[in-house]
Amino acid sequence: MTSAPMLQGGYLSVMETRNALDFRKEVINFARTLGFQTVSAMTVIDRGRSGTEFHVVDNTPQAFTQVYLDADLGQVDPVMQHCKRAAVPIIWDQDTYVTRGRGDMWEHQARFGYRTGVMLALHLPNGRHFCLGVDRDRPLPKSARSVTRIVADLQLFAVHAQDAAFRIFASEETEPVDIPALTPRELEALRWTADGKTAWEVGTIMSISERTAVLHLQNAMRKLDCVNKHQAVLKALRFRLIS
Predict the structure, then answer these.
(1) pLDDT by residue (tens digit) across 78-93?
(2) How far apart are CA 81 and CA 74, in angstroms?
(3) Residues 200-209: pLDDT tens digits?
(4) CB atoms < 10 A from the CB of 233, how many?
(5) Structure confidence at residue 175 (pLDDT)
(6) What is each CA distance from 222 to 25, 91, 143, 225, in whole angstroms?
């Protein structure tokens, strides 16, 4: 069983990291708290004609590193291919590879502890992508509820981690950033969302309908150029629009 307070502490800790070393430490700590011994966080920055940058933070066993980072194998790995195309997390195991004719890949990686895991990708605006995967050598819990909790925790952590990752690795962005103007109601909706309130709860607190609360959040997401409300909250915090 994982500890909710410990997980929540991990969300905040990774968001506050200032360098790649501390970022790696927080990613590894969170994965272990979640019950996984290995983890990989990949930050992808497409710079157009200048090419694409890949920044990988992991704790892959040294004996498996060469295979793990082989770009050619990544082109046929079922898990990596899923994450390139979809934003939905993938829960993978031996069957994932066998059914796609890649059972040999699973057999090889299983010797290094990669028997099952969860991986997801966040596809963001301006050619940015963030992939986060956790792996272990034993099966996932049999309870569907427990697995759902793991996936939800990983998704929320990924939202916090990507904010830190792009701040750390996209160092070329030194020019002043135009901070968008949000309405007082949009900011209030973000503040309550940051406190963990659902759209229905936000609407109740603000004495508006759930639909109107959602509209305020969607407008905030659009103005902040974010793909979900969690990312919008983090960006608003970074811009000091909310506290």
Answers:
(1) 999 999 888 899 999 9
(2) 7
(3) 999 999 999 9
(4) 27
(5) 47
(6) 32, 30, 37, 5
Determine which helix (DSSP H) or strand (DSSP E) holds 122, and give its type and residue range: strand 116-124
Distance CA(140)–CA(162), nearest Å, equals: 25
Which residues have CB under 8 Å from 159's CB, separation 6+? 122, 228, 230, 231, 234
DSSP, res 195: T
Neighbours of 160 (CB within 10 A): 23
β 38-46/90-92 pair status: unpaired
Residue partners of 219: CB distance under 8 A and separation at least 6: 182, 183, 186
Q: Which residue has the tokens 């940015």?
A: 128
234 pLDDT tier (thresholds 50, 70, 90): confident
Domains in the chain with CATH codes: 4-169 (3.30.450.80), 184-238 (1.10.10.10)
- Do residues 119 and 151 touch, judged by C-beta distance below 8 A? no
CA distances from 173 to 47, 169, 176, 202 (A): 12, 10, 8, 34
Give Rg (Cα) of the chain: 19
CB distance 23 to 57 below 8 Å: yes
